[in-house]
From TrEMBL:
<feature type="domain" description="Putative Na+/H+ antiporter N-terminal">
    <location>
        <begin position="2"/>
        <end position="87"/>
    </location>
</feature>
<keyword id="KW-1003">Cell membrane</keyword>
<keyword id="KW-1133">Transmembrane helix</keyword>
<dbReference type="InterPro" id="IPR052576">
    <property type="entry name" value="AA_Transporter-Related"/>
</dbReference>
<dbReference type="InterPro" id="IPR032813">
    <property type="entry name" value="Na_H_antiport_N"/>
</dbReference>
<keyword id="KW-0472">Membrane</keyword>
<dbReference type="Pfam" id="PF03553">
    <property type="entry name" value="Na_H_antiporter"/>
</dbReference>
<dbReference type="InterPro" id="IPR018461">
    <property type="entry name" value="Na/H_Antiport_NhaC-like_C"/>
</dbReference>
<feature type="domain" description="Na+/H+ antiporter NhaC-like C-terminal">
    <location>
        <begin position="150"/>
        <end position="436"/>
    </location>
</feature>
<protein>
    <submittedName>
        <fullName>Sodium:proton antiporter</fullName>
    </submittedName>
</protein>
<dbReference type="Pfam" id="PF13726">
    <property type="entry name" value="Na_H_antiport_2"/>
</dbReference>
<dbReference type="GO" id="GO:0005886">
    <property type="term" value="C:plasma membrane"/>
</dbReference>
<keyword id="KW-0812">Transmembrane</keyword>
Amino acid sequence: MNAVVAAVLIMLILSALRVNVTIALIVGAFAGGIIGGLGVEETINVFSSGLGDNATVALSYATLGGFALALTKTGLPDAVVDGTLRIIGNSNDTKKKAFSKVLVVLLILVISCFSQNVIPVHIAFIPILIPALLKVFNELQLDRRLIACVMTFGLITPYMFIPAGFGKIYHDILAKTVTAGGLKVNVEDIPAAMAIPALGMIVGLLIAIFVSYRKPREYDTIEYVETNEKAQYSKRSLITAVVAVLAALTVQLLTLDTEGAMIFGAITGIIILLISGAMNFKEADELLTNGMRMMAFIGFVIISAAGFAAVMTKTGDVESLVAYAADLIGNNQSLGALLMLIVGLLVTMGIGSSFSTLPIIAAIFVPLCVQLGFSPLATLAIIGTAGALGDAGSPASDSTLGPTSGLNVDGQHNHIWETVIPTFIHYNIPLIIFGWIAAMVL
């Protein structure tokens, strides 16, 4: 059996059985290494050496967690909750409650989409905004699986379709890898090629909102900050909090091309809170430690995913999986489009990054698409969709780990069953269907 397929399946099965995701990644990587012929010692060495690849991202989560918890001392989260609850008003007013649900879901959707282009901070907004809104979700009896689907949609669809922010990066990589594979394409054509697959994402979102998770769901209101006292806020403290948040975002934007953008953005915000006196020096260490602890699970998963990806790459079975699919396809255009999409799904779910998947699959998929007679637009749609597939539904993807980091601060949202599986069902299945349609009609 192909090592990548085996490793991904083992990782997913263990995760679905509620085995800790970090353990599932380690076991899956070890099994994949053995099946791929690396041997025990080399598998362990490759896995260990690959762990550092995601260390920056893991530290980003930790510092953002500290900054998010530090903001609670300014009273900003409580002010957000109080303001939103005033809009909600009497929870017994059915019409007003329905309107409030729409308002909250729409707000999160817009912010999630804007985090990829207008203010390209990616997942950095989640640990700051979402924990503060959990009380509001509880008041409205919103199903957190719906919120996870909304955020994941906003983290993926814009970069697929809109050539700005992270979308520009994705489109540039797609155009570059397809051209390197032997097919000259224009980056300006990518939005047209990805329009139908993006429509599949919209269909998945609408199903999640209006069908799957429309029913009320009750949660206990649990304080995620270890204190029984509600933070007191004033005009000065709120201004300080807003300045800290804006400063953090500004630093991230100015250092967007560097790996440590989120780290230094969060540190900037923390320093402003300390200098302003919004956070007391004596309690800063404990508060920041608790915030980092809140994000520890996400950090360990991200670090483990880097080791998993290193082992999969070392086996060489990623390339052999792509080559095997090419051999199996023959001259069947319809089957070819479907298998290329499925291979993209498997590779991305294992690696956890759609951006890293494109160069791996394009080298073989581009000549295959040309051989099967696909147009340049259809080729862009197939490879662009194959890269994005698995970003939703992967236990190790930012697009699932981010939502979980915000929704599970009170321990009532399971990463696998309430983020990974819902996003897999609502986005990967429509993406395969609509990606295949795009390949056939473009």
